[in-house]
Specification:
heterodimer; A: alpha/beta; five-stranded mixed sheet; two-stranded antiparallel sheet; disordered N terminus; B: alpha/beta; 8 strands; about 20% strand
């Protein structure tokens, strides 16, 4: 005499041990096998594509203004703690001059500097330019305008590097990194003939 | 005697299984990171005749009118305006303070913007993004800037590569 609902045909070897089937004799669920080959193929293709395109370029921007003739206020600073710095870029180096409406000519002339090429690399000495601009900023803390006047033949890349040298100054004090703005307002002008 | 006799050091089965869980985890994390970085990039530069200069600037690019100065041409938006040969604009004298075709194009855009209510903010209306090749002569760049200034675009944003 068989038990209620029991199907003698469904008898399996595991039913006697209790694994892989219920006590009512249902067939054990076969293990599901996932074929990951196609998924791995897609993921790796996507990964290689993204890796290749990730390194192309990350574009940032530098804000500046163009000098235009206006009837309004001059760009020359008229505060005691502010001056306007002009950097002439020539093939031989940088010519830094300072203008201000309040300061004396002797005071401003003392800040004028000719910065030649670096002795080590023979290229424009951006580090020396940066140091001099830091000196000017320390003396005139409200200064923020830089006028760049490149000569013919100066590559555009050097103009950008000059802007970088004048943008900010980084110091480390007390284990912390401090970034102070130098001359963030940039005006690009051409050589007056 | 029946049954296979094992020789010394051999396992009974040649099959082995790879556990791919950790590998899938790493790949999916890498994928999500790259997807997020890829979609966050607003601007792509894909010209062979344009190499942007590198800069330490961290200012993100703001979508605006783009003026591109490559080694061979000047492009406003997607339209080539003038050809460049040996750092000189073809058809423009060196003594000319402006680049006429560029001025005409920018002036038209400026007049359109002044009528467009979308450009209520003067900063947005007067600004453009300059993407220039790093080897471009500064005289050419200065002329482009002067032309743009004459056309009413007095705020320039230099597109650079993040260093």
């Amino acid at each position: 005499m068989s038990g209620g609902g029991a199907d003698p045909g469904a008898e399996t070897s595991s039913s006697s041990s209790g694994f892989g089937g219920s006590v009512f004799g249902e067939a054990a669920t076969p293990p599901v096998e996932l074929n990951m080959t196609a998924l791995m193929d897609i993921l790796s293709n996507l990964l290689f594509f993204l890796l290749a395109s990730f390194g192309t370029c990350v574009v940032m921007m530098i804000q500046a203004t163009v000098p235009v003739q206006s009837k309004g206020k001059s760009d020359v600073e008229d505060k005691a703690q502010a001056v306007t710095v002009m950097v002439n870029i020539s093939k031989t180096g940088f010519d830094v001059s300072v203008t201000g409406a309040v300061q004396t000519p002797q005071e401003l002339e003392g800040l004028r500097r000719q910065i030649g090429a670096s002795a080590a690399s023979g290229e424009h000495d951006l580090q020396a330019l940066h140091s001099h601009l830091v000196t000017i900023k320390e003396r005139y803390k409200d200064s923020k305008t830089l006028i760049i006047v490149p000569e013919p033949g100066i590559p555009y890349g050097l103009m950008i590097k000059t802007m970088d040298a004048a943008r900010e100054h980084e110091t480390v004090a007390g284990g912390k990194r401090w970034v102070t703005k130098l001359l963030p307002e940039i005006v690009v002008s051409g050589t007056v003939k | 005697m029946t049954g296979k006799r094992l020789s010394f050091g051999e396992s009974s089965s040649g099959a082995f299984s790879l556990n791919l869980t950790a590998l899938m985890d790493i790949l999916s994390n890498l994928l999500f990171f790259l997807l997020a970085s890829y979609t966050a990039q607003d601007l792509e530069v894909k010209r062979s005749d344009l190499t942007l200069p590198a800069s330490i600037s961290n200012d993100k690019v703001v979508e605006t009118l783009m003026v591109t100065v490559t080694r061979s041409e000047i492009i406003v938006g997607q339209e080539a305006i003038a050809q460049i040969q040996e750092s000189r604009v073809v058809g423009v004298n060196d003594e000319d303070p402006q680049i006429t075709p560029l001025y005409n194009k920018l002036r038209n855009i400026k007049l359109t913007r002044e009528r467009d209510t979308q450009y209520q903010d003067a900063t947005a209306r007067d600004s453009f993004l300059l993407m220039a090749d790093k080897s471009s002569d500064s005289v050419l760049i200065a002329k482009v800037l002067k032309t743009a200034g004459a056309a009413g675009f007095v705020r320039v944003r230099f597109g650079v590569l993040s260093q």
